[in-house]
Design goal:
The structure is a homodimer. By secondary structure, chain A is α+β, with helices and mostly antiparallel strands. Chain A contains 13 helices and six strands. In chain A, a hairpin with a 7-residue loop joins strand 2 and strand 3.
């Protein structure tokens, strides 16, 4: 095959790898090895720009057993990061921009280099792709053309991964802010939401639920009381038993939770968060609220959070009573297994508490 | 140039377009036209899967002046969406899976077709790429190989755009949920946060600020009172003037706003939301709180939200007084321009109110 055919095969292969290779490092390693093979280079390196530290770090460095971190303004890579333009360097020893310190520390000898910017879909430079030591002479314009295309694929894939990551961390921080707001409202039950999340997560894992469903249940657990944000202090913080009217006001928090959470545009994996949260006061025998549904008509999330919520309420310290012993609280819940609570969920709570040596 | 060279050139060109072409439709149109040219096809179409309606719709349809919408289970495209496998159809009239209804409605005649799945980086099929009517006979395996690579680029780019869109809509819905929580706490000032956002946005635009900065200021305006979530009803809803101690409690909302908003992992363009929100009670002459900073040391967002907040408070109906006439409220604020308020911001409020025919 001639050079062109090799490069065509290579581009077809790496493009198709986008949807087949799940892991960013594996994909970039493939891009680096195809680049070296196609261009006849000794090594290829993919650097990602770390804005916070103003450094370039090697997510993929062929022939290296450790990460390289360099100042984002130094060397050929730093130069390309700054200018956004491709650089062909025929003899690095004659180029003042070359920084020999990495070679000194790794024992490698760079002779010639091809360095191209990696951009996201907004055109911002987010990294640098570098191939070094082309055998039989320096890199050509055609080599640069090829590497720029490979770098474009690297750029959009890196961007996608960081978008997924940021979407998740943004969501998590916002859900935490929502949960903290409830705690700010009602210091008497401080820590309740976080604890219910912990127990609900433990139960889910001991039931063998998937990581995705467990995460969905944990978020719903953290937010299950969110509607309490609208309950007046006179009811929310009342030390004495509530009268009938006040009970109605208090119970209205469940529907408000549903309304507020339903307005949030969750990602697909978290679509059931509102339903799980709303159903935490439903009971297996239909005696719960707000809808009075029973049995399997209550979602698995609702059944788990119900048990986690009651266990937390019984074992937490309240100003009007001492906390109940965990074993005693489990017994209280166990007595209603099959009537109010899902027996399998109660079993899972017990195995979780045993595994954590709480009981 | 032989076929291979043409295809290599084409792939290099479309890959490099990822970071150069800002608009998804333009990029996909380029992919479609390169595909038709390289494969010798009459037309190429990019379909996106609409999960909610279970339909495929043509984001790009060469030679069509309108969008095609088809049932996601019908036709060759529906078949490929369902199976996730490439389909080469030499003679569509002999293939029972072909749905002639689109041809009937458009007057086009499909003879042969190459249909490949579009996938995201998670491997999920999110659309279909189809080329039809190869001149001089049917599509080959090499054609399929090429189109699968082009479809991979389409897939990752479509995913990228939908991630940006979803991140934004998720953030907006969560910020609205936060804002509604404040309203639920304090029905007396219902609509305050939304109105302050509206005025702050209007002022920003009349100051000629960028769309990005305006959005940042609008979000901060919507959330500026968020810390009030933790102020007890006895203070928040007190109809009479507050005593010194209660004023302290009320003012503490600003720092709580800062604490909660700072914990949110906003995208880069929204980094200043917490600062803008926290500074809405600062005054130009240093007489404000919480920090008592003055002049340009107060962010532009803080100076704008301060004016928007006071204008809203004066002109909104409160249970203890009638709303002030907008012209009178502007006069009141104008009297403090240069001392409490930024005079340019006050001018911008005036031109906004005039443009909206509020005054």
């Amino acid at each position: 095959m001639d050079d062109g055919s090799v490069r065509l095969e290579s581009l077809l292969k790496i493009l198709k790898a986008i949807s087949r290779v799940r892991d960013l490092n594996t994909l970039l390693a493939l891009l680096a090895s195809e680049t070296s093979a196609c261009l006849g280079a000794e090594r290829s390196t993919v650097f990602i720009y770390d804005r916070a530290r103003n450094e370039l770090w090697s997510i993929i460095a062929e022939g290296m057993d450790r990460q390289i971190r360099i100042d984002a303004t130094s060397g050929l890579a730093g130069h390309v990061l700054g200018t956004g333009s491709t650089l062909i360097t025929g003899d690095v020893s004659r180029d003042g921009r070359f920084d020999p310190s990495v070679d000194r520390s790794t024992g490698f000898t760079t002779r010639n280099a091809l360095t191209v910017p990696i951009r996201n879909t907004r055109g911002e430079v987010t990294g640098v792709f570098q191939a070094v030591n082309k055998s039989g002479g320096g890199f050509s314009m055609e080599d640069a053309d090829f590497l720029e295309a490979v770098a474009a694929e690297a750029g959009v894939t890196i961007e996608n991964v960081s978008l997924y990551e940021h979407r998740r961390s943004m969501l998590e921080s916002l859900i935490k802010a929502l949960a903290e707001s409830i705690e700010a409202r009602d210091p008497l039950t401080a820590g309740h939401s976080e604890n219910v999340m912990k127990y609900a997560g433990g139960i889910s894992r001991h039931l063998g639920l998937s990581a995705t469903l467990t995460r969905e249940i944990e978020y719903a657990a953290l937010l299950h009381d969110y509607g309490k944000i609208g309950v007046p202090d006179a009811v929310l913080r009342k030390p004495d038993p509530l009268d009938e009217n006040e009970i109605g006001v208090m119970r209205s928090h469940v529907e408000r939770t549903g309304r507020i959470l339903s307005s949030i545009d969750f990602e697909e994996d978290l679509e059931s968060v509102p339903q799980f949260a709303v159903e935490h006061h439903e009971r297996l025998d239909g005696s719960g609220y707000p809808a009075g549904v029973s049995g399997d008509a209550i979602s698995i999330g609702g059944r788990i959070i119900a048990v986690a919520d009651v266990f937390e309420a019984l074992t937490a310290k309240r100003h009007y009573r001492d906390p109940m012993d965990p074993r005693e609280a489990l017994g209280t819940i166990r007595a209603a297994a099959g009537t109010a609570f899902d027996a399998e969920v109660v079993d899972a709570l017990q195995s979780y508490l045993e595994a954590e040596r709480v009981i």
